[in-house]
Amino acid sequence: MNRLITSVLVGLVGLNAVLQADPTKPKLVVGIMVDQLRTDYIDYLRDLFGERGLKLLADSGLNLRNVDFGVAGLNGGVATAEVMSGAYPRTNGVTSVLTATGQLSPDQLTVTTIADELAIDGGGMANVYAIAPDRATAVALGGHAANSVIWLDPNSGQWTTDSYYGPLPQTAALRNGRQAVAARIDTMVWKPVLPIDRYPGVAPKKKFYPFRYTFPTSDRDVYRRFARTPLMNREVTDLAIDFINGLKLGNRGSDATDMIGIGLTAAPYKEASDGNYRLELADSYIRLDGQIERLINAIDSTVGLDHTVVFLSSTGYCDEAVPEDPQFRIPGGELSLKRMKSLLNSYLTAKYGNGDFVEKIEDNVLTLNHKTIDEKHLDLNEVLTASRSFLNRMSGVDRVFTFDEILSGNTPEARALQLSTDPHTAPDLTIDYQSGWTVIDDLKYPVTEKVVRSSAVATPAFILAPALEAETINTPVDATALAATVSGILRIRSPNASRQPIR
After folding, report:
1. Of 248, 239, 262, nearest to 176 (Cα)?
2. Whole-Å CA distances, 42 to 263, 266, 449
3. How many CB atoms lie within 10 A of CB 364?
4. For 288-303, how does the pLDDT look when each residue is reduced to its tens digit (9 = 90+)?
5. Are 366 and 397 in contact (CB under 8 A)?
6. Do residues 95 and 118 touch, judged by C-beta distance below 8 A?
């Protein structure tokens, strides 16, 4: 860990001197989280990007090519909370257990964030907003003190918020009325934005049959599916530009610094029609770059980049796995969570008598029904041991951990689990599935399938600021360093649990 801390601090040695020479605070800060953004794909597709999108961020500011989140169970909400708070899930409260359903609330985020500290520093005069495709990412971007936090309702296709933040801002309400996603979804089409021969590495079949996706409202999952495509990035960017222009963010004549947090996606499209999503992924990156360029141009034309700090981070992982074609005979299988729950409950019933012993299984965490265990006067540790032993013998399960085992482990895997687990919300059991297996979550709607694959992927972060000289850091940087670094540039306190302040 010291190596990770040192790598970012060494790269920022000159930053303090530059900032001391320029006491002017920025007028606007723009924080962008891009789900599953990869460094190698940015390099691979660089020649197809514009000059004022990802290229500008990589070439004109601090370019961190290998950001290490250091935890297990990463998803958009977990990663965003780690970046914004400068603290691991164990400390900030936002774990995969809480975000498995995407229903994160501000109260579950137990520490301050960059957005909170900016609002506090402004004494209530700063305007802070966050916009993202999903609730968990939006809440983690906005924190506790945001004026409003907005995401797309996956059931209605309307922009929405939580009563915690008050009513939906008029800017978002107007877009719901005049340019609602729900009113246009039937007419939207995702197809290659460039001529097919300009994409590198295209499979021969796709040269003749490029992808084309539509979004019929007859599909009950249409808005969730739409939100996983690059078309969603345009919707988020449109609304963000509306907020910057309409609310005059960073241009209100106030001494306070305004902020807007923006969630975008570069995730592989798992619903590719032929199972090969490489062309779709390349198109996603090209479209993403275009939206970042639109955003930067809008900022420059209103506030000016010389008065703005932009930071962008990946969410630190890439869920690229899809089931392998049976012709290759790769070991694996399918594991149903509904069947797992039923079998475990039957086993515990046979051992301890009739009862509902398993409360829930979400992703890779399992919670027992403590009420049933108490009513039967059973020892919880005994039931946990029996459950773990049973699950460890199931096909598709690699290893099962109790909370005590996670706390006492000293392997790199155990360390990652420790940093990922909040003792106050820890599950009874954490399950590692075998690589190559497909885990089917058929306990909820819509049913989801996830192929297990453990692959190391370098993910980036960028910071663009008026007083920050261009620099590229190739050595690993701990993701929790980003909050302290950005806070130093903004001349505000670091979040109250951030681990690595600039020295």
Report:
1. 239
2. 18, 11, 27
3. 23
4. 999 999 999 999 999 9
5. no
6. no
